[in-house]
Each structure stands twice: as structure tokens, then as C-alpha cells.
Design a protein that fits this description.
Length: 183
């Protein structure tokens, strides 16, 4: 599992046991557990199982589950780069979340840009895709600032809280010359 530097002093690294405290905060959020595998309700056993799943995903080659770490060394969120279906579909998917106490500080944007640059550059993935609910303007801004382009609305694309939800589809293509979001 690599460690990646990101803008503004953020970085990405693999999950460790002390990150269970981040999971406790994420599990208390009303939305994060609905769209991720973050355990809710939180328990020490559920957190241990989550951490084991993250390590297993990298070991079996289905993806790179990262923790987003702020400049002060605090774990503030998660980012998953899921590569398991690249041979079948030709692209990887990415998703991200930030615990409520750390939002609106640029963590998700810095992490997404760094992970996308690494995936499209060093891993030579041809394309990354992500999905965002139309009401989630913060996540939409994050995706667009990281160089992802909206390609269309996918009606009833994902179950959220047991109900099918429309999702904006975003994609970013590999470009060996330069990053799309560099200014």
C-alpha cells in the first residue's frame, strides 16, 4: 500500500488500528454509512472487521483503500480506488468521504487529485469514474476541481438507504502528459 503526498500538506496512507477512531466518527454521520461499508452502528468488533477488509482488498488486488491524513497527522477521511474490474470494464472507480468535523478544509479535493494523478500516471489506468448524488454540491465541487468531468445522469443507479438514487456520473481520462487540474 503506497503512501501518497497530496496538496496543502495532506497525504494518503493505508488503514491502521488507530484509525478505528475515525470510523467511530464516520459511523455517527447520517450519510457516510449509507454509501460506504463504514460500520453503523459502530462497535470495536465491526471496526476491526472493516480494517481487516481494507487490508484484504489490497492483498487480493481489488483496490487501494486509503486514509486521508491532514497536515497535523490526524486521520480525517477515507478514499477508495477500486481497480478489481479494470480487466473487465477498462476503468477503475473512486469514492471518498470526510468525517464531519474535518469538512470544508480541502481534504477530499487534495486526496482525490493525488489519488487520480497516481492512478492515471503511475498505475497507467485508462480511466477513473465516480458517482455523486445530485444534491451533494460539496462532492460535485470536489470531483470537478480534481479534473473529473460530468458525463450524465444515471437514473436509479445506486441504492442508498435501501432506495434507488439518481447519480451524476463523472470521469477522468488518463493523460500521460500532465494533470488536468494543475494550474
Amino acid at each position: 500500500m503506497p503512501e501518497l503526498a497530496a496538496a496543502r500538506g495532506y497525504r494518503l496512507r493505508g488503514w491502521t488500528e488507530p484509525d478505528a477512531e475515525l470510523l467511530r466518527a464516520a459511523a455517527a454521520d447520517p450519510y457516510i454509512p449509507l454509501t460506504t461499508t463504514v460500520p453503523s452502528p459502530y462497535s470495536d468488533a465491526a471496526a476491526a472487521a472493516y480494517l481487516a477488509r481494507q487490508r484484504r482488498r489490497t492483498a487480493i488486488g481489488t483496490g487501494y483503500p486509503f486514509v486521508i491524513v491532514d497536515p497535523d497527522g490526524r486521520a480525517v477521511g477515507g478514499l477508495g480506488l477500486w481497480t478489481g474490474e479494470v480487466p473487465l470494464r477498462g476503468w477503475a472507480t473512486v469514492g471518498y468521504w470526510v468525517a464531519p468535523a474535518f469538512r470544508r478544509r480541502g481534504a477530499a479535493g487534495a486526496a482525490l487529485a493525488a489519488a487520480a494523478d497516481w492512478a492515471l500516471g503511475e498505475l497507467a489506468l485508462p480511466r477513473l469514474e465516480l458517482y455523486v448524488e445530485p444534491w451533494n454540491t460539496g462532492s460535485i465541487r470536489t470531483a470537478e476541481r480534481a479534473g473529473f468531468r460530468r458525463t450524465g445522469l444515471r437514473p436509479a443507479h445506486q441504492l442508498v438507504d435501501g432506495r434507488p438514487r439518481d447519480m451524476w456520473h463523472y470521469a477522468r481520462e488518463g493523460d500521460p502528459g500532465a494533470s488536468e487540474h494543475d494550474e
